[in-house]
Design brief:
With about 190 residues, the chain is mainly α. The chain folds into two domains: about 90 residues; about 60 residues, no CATH class. The chain contains five helices and five strands. A hairpin with a 6-residue loop joins β4 and β5. The longest helix has about 70 residues. The radius of gyration is 45 Å and the shape is rod-shaped. The relative contact order is 0.09.
Amino acid sequence: MSKFGHQLSDYVSKEMGTWKFVGFLSTVTALWIGLNVFLPLNKRFDKYPFVALNLVYSFLAGFTAPILLMSANRQGEADRKKIIETLNLERQDSIHIHAMLHKIVSLEQDIEDAMKLRTSPVAAQPEWVCDSCGAAYGIWWEAGEYCGPSKHLATYHVDDCRVCGRHVPCTEPRDYGYLRKEWLEHAAKQ
C-alpha cells in the first residue's frame, strides 16, 4: 500500500474513534430523519422506513471495517517491530548482567580465598623472614614471582632470618602472605 493509503487509513481510523465523529453522524442522521418526516410528501427523498439511510449506513460500515483493519494491521506491525527491538536490547542487557555477575562471583571467591590464606596461616609463623625464604615459601609467591596484594614492608630491617638463619634484610611473614608449611621441614633439617 502506498504511503498516502497508510496515512489516509490512519487518519480515518483516528477520526472515527472520536466524539466529534459520533456527534457529526448523529446530526446527519437527525437531519435526514427530520427532513423526511416534516417536509411535504412530494419533497421527501427517503420516506419511512428510511431505506436510503440504511443503505448509506451499510456503505459506511462496509468501507469503515477494511480501513480500520488496515490501520490496525499497520499499527500491529509497528508494535511487533518495537517489541522485537526491545526484546533484543533486553537480551543484550541480560548477557551483560550475567557476565558482570559471573565476574563479581569470581572476584568474591578470589577475595575469600585470599582472606583465608592471609588470616589463617598454616603453622606458627617465624618472627622474621628474608626475601629468599619469603619467595621460596610464601603463599603468594609462585615461580619466583610475587602474586599477592601490595607488600607493606613497614617492618623491613636487617635481622636474623628465622627460617634460614642468615643475618640479612628481613620482614614479617605476612608480607609474603605467610609461609607454606614446607618452611617447617626446611627449618627442621637445619
